[in-house]
Structure formats: C-alpha cells, structure tokens
Amino acid sequence: MSVDQLHELPIHQAQKLLHSREISARELTDACLNRLASVEPHVNALLTVCSEHALAQASAADRLLASDSAAPLTGIPFIAKDLLCTRGIVTTCGSRMLEGFVPPYDATVIDRLLRQGSVLLGKSNMDEFAMGSSTEHSAFFPSRNPWNRDFVPGGSSGGSAAALSAGEALFTLGSDTGGSIRQPAGFCGVVGLKPTYGRVSRYGLIAFASSLDQIGPFTRDLHDCALVMNAIAGQCHKDSTSAPVSVPDFTSFLNRGVRGLRIGVPKEYFGAGILPEVRTCVEDAILLLERMGAYIHRDISLPSTEYALAAYYIIAPSEASANLARFDGVKYGFSRQRATTEDSVTATRGEGFGPEVKRRIMLGTHTLSSGYYNAYYVKALKVRHRINEEFQRAFEQCDLLAVPTSPTVAFPLGSKIHDLLQMYLTDILTIPANIAGIPALSIPCGFTDGLPVGLQLMANRFREDVLIQAGHAYEQATEWHLRHPDL
Ligand code: GLN
C-alpha cells in the first residue's frame, strides 16, 4: 500500500504497521490530513481541523512507539463530534451559542484516547445541540453524504459518519440520544455502536437529554469497533451514571461465529413506512445469519414500539429544556448585553439558539410545567417503563434482535427540513434502544440506488460483546463494509 492510501486502513491493520515500524504515526497523520484537505470541500464534515495539534501528537506517538511503550491506539488518527469537550480546541456543539468556546478540559473519552497516544485531527459537524437527523440543523452548514453529495449524511453525528466514510480518519466519535450514531452510520455505510447507557463516561459531553445520551464509535469494521470500545468504555468517577461494570476485552468476541445465537425479529420493526429495498436487504441479512447457524425467532413482539417516538419527544425535550438553561450569556459562550439582566438573557438566547433548539426548549418547558407534568412527562415515563419490560421479556427468549437501522436510506438535502414530523420519523427504529438504555449497533448490509443500508442489532444491557460477536460474523461473510465512496 502506498503512503497516500494509508487513510483507508482499518485500525487493526494500521496498528500492525505502526508497531512493526513499517509506517510512522506521522506518515499516517499526514495521509489523513492530505485526504481531509482534498475531500473536505466536497463533504463539509468538519467544523475544526487542528493540524498543528495533530502533528505534535503524532510525533509524541512515534516516540511512544519507538520506546515500546505504545498502547493499542497509539498513533491512530481520529475525529470527535463537536459536542465532546477538547482542551484548547474550539467546541461549538454546532451552535452559535458556543461559537468560539474553548473548553478548559477534555471529555473523559478524549482524555482516554489522548493518553493512549491517539491523534485528534479535528471536530465534526452536527445538528445544533445534537437535535436533528441530517446535520441540516447545524448553525454553520450542512454536511454531505460521501456516497451522493446531494443527500444528507444523517444526523445528528452526520459529520462524524461522513468524515469516516470519506476516509478522513481511521475512526470517529459520535453521540446517540435517539439514533444519532446508528442512523448516520447506516446512511454513510460504516459501523456505528451506541453502547449501553452507563458503559461510556459522559463527562465532558455537552448534554442534550442526560438519561438518553451515550457516546460511541464509528469504525470501518467490528474489529475496530472492539478496539475503540476497549479504549473508551468503563466507569469514571466524574460521571455518576457511568456503571461500575467490568469491561471485557471486546476483541475476544471476534471470530466466534453465530452458531447457536438466538436472534429475534420483532414484527413491529418491519411494518408500514419501511422502504421495500431496506426491508429486503435486512431480511437477506437475517437469512444469511440463519444459514450461518443462528436460530431465528420470528414471533417476537414489542407492542409498545409505536409509542416510543412520542415518549421520546416528551422525555428528550424535557431534559433538554433543563440542560440548556445554563446558556444565559453570563458564564460562557455567546453573549448579548442589554440594559437589564432579563433583557440580556433574552437577547442572548434569542440570537444564540437556532429554531429547532428553541422548539425543543419550548416543548420541554411546557411538558415539565405544573398542570402538564403528569399528563405528559409522567405518562412518557410510564411508556418508558413498559418499553423496558418488553425488551427484557424479549431478551429472555433471544440474545439479539435484528431490525433495520432506519426506515429509509439517506434522503436528499432539503427534502425534510420543512416537514419536521418526517424528519423525526427517521429515528423511529433507533429511539427504542435509547429509551431502554440497551446497546445497539448499525452495520452495512447492502445498497439501494447507490446508497448504503444499515442492519441494526440490539442486545441486552452490557451485552456489547454479543453485538460485536454477531456483527463480526456477518461482516466476515459479506463485503458491504469494504466498499468506499468514489470521491
Ligand atoms: N434525531 C433525534 C433528535 O432529533 C436524535 C438525535 C440524537 O440522537 N442526538 O432528537
């Protein structure tokens, strides 16, 4: 492989070349930065590129490699969604409200990666405060799908998915509150994992809906997913919701096949609104898993699935309205000064937030207000409880559930931005896993009209191992994940 193709490598191959000194971290970083410079004008995946930081980190990584004190991700270049705080590097959350904000600390996931000697190349574009499904709600510009630049890359972590798919880094990080890792992973033809709620520390993640948010990786394949999870998972004393659960070596679940695994196919995920081509790709994937030795349960039912979207659009805005109260122009970020404090806060929030964020704050303030709290918020929590119970019952009968990631493939830029219900409906198959806090994975399982289709696998809490095992087996038997967009 020539030096100018190094950006295409999966982590597990780059790692071998770095450790045997066939390539240097500096060469790998240069290859990604060059690639990024040539494709970024076409995909607009990034808000910030930090080349100088990256080159300094790459040189430090080369010293670690030379002294034989390298860790698994030493010298591996990555990109982080712009809601992960990065010390000394602008972090905007896709919002004017935080334009120019430079955090004084690193998020735990960033800290863990930098301590290993991974190389941060930049920060990726996103829907403002992670509210959206297309990156069109970014306050700055929309990103584009590398497979067809007239189409969205998905969202809200669309920049992270597009950047990886375009070969700008070896892995990227995103966050998933209602589907924001899995949906863009599906739309851009890469692997995306939303871990169990509590598996990865949220310290330093700018909060959207704290009971739903999880950080996770975008990777080229499941081996890489396991490597990144090994680095970022685990309890952290700075996030009280991070779970005191031991973290296995996720790579030990590769190459185990699917023989004997019980895979459930809940019928509620295959109903009206699913594009026939998407259904065909996912059904073909399930048949393949069956031929590979999995036992397929076709009579699984999750009847409350139809209420998940409605419950989400109560719970998430309620939490957002509380979380976003801190943006008042006093402590940090965008600020407008007027004659009185109240007028200053009103002007700051009026100009600093975009329309979708304002809608969510208003909705959440309403659903939490006295008189409506029981009718909306408490009722949504009851639905959440019911959805949880149904998943628990399903996981008594099966190890995994296999469904489409999204009802459709990527849609054209501009096509849903004025029809918000249609935009919200793109997450109808991903939201239940957030509501229940269970881990879920999207892997490439086909194409239609040149656009990728995602297969979603869900498992019980803290069973990322079984997702990685099954996902890897499927990937070994297929070649979808090896395709690259032509840019
Ligand atoms: N698209 C969903 C929303 O707009 C989910 C976003 C996310 O997961 N961050 O809320």
Describe this structure in words.
The protein has helices at about 10-20, 25-45, 50-65, 110-115, 160-165, 180-190, 220-230, 275-290, 310-325, 340-350, 355-370, 375-395, 420-425, 430-435, 465-475, and strands at about 45-50, 75-80, 120-125, 170-175, 190-195, 215-220, 260-265, 295, 400-405, 440-450, 450-460. With about 475 residues, it is α/β, with parallel strands linked by helices. Strands 1-3-2-4-6-5-10-11-9-7-8 form an eleven-stranded mixed beta sheet, with helices on both faces. Strand 2, helix 4 (about 110-115) and strand 3 (about 120-125) form a beta-alpha-beta unit. Helix 5 (about 160-165) runs parallel beside helix 6 (about 180-190) and helix 9 (about 310-325) crosses helix 11. The two termini are about 20 Å apart. Bound molecules: glutamine. Glutamine binds near residues 180, 208 and 316.
Key attributes of the depicted protein:
single chain; 487 residues; alpha/beta; Amidase signature (AS) enzymes; eleven-stranded mixed beta sheet; 11 strands; globular; binds glutamine
Tell me what the CATH architecture of the domain at 3-256 is: Alpha-Beta Complex
CATH class of the domain at 3-256: Alpha Beta
Which fold name is given in CATH as the topology of the domain at 3-256? Amidase signature (AS) enzymes
How many β-strand stretches?
Answer: 11
By CATH's scheme, which homologous superfamily of the domain at 3-256 applies?
A: Amidase signature (AS) domain
Poorly predicted parts: none
Number of helices: 15
> Distance between termini?
19 Å
Named once each, the bound ligands are: glutamine
Share of residues in strands: 5-15%
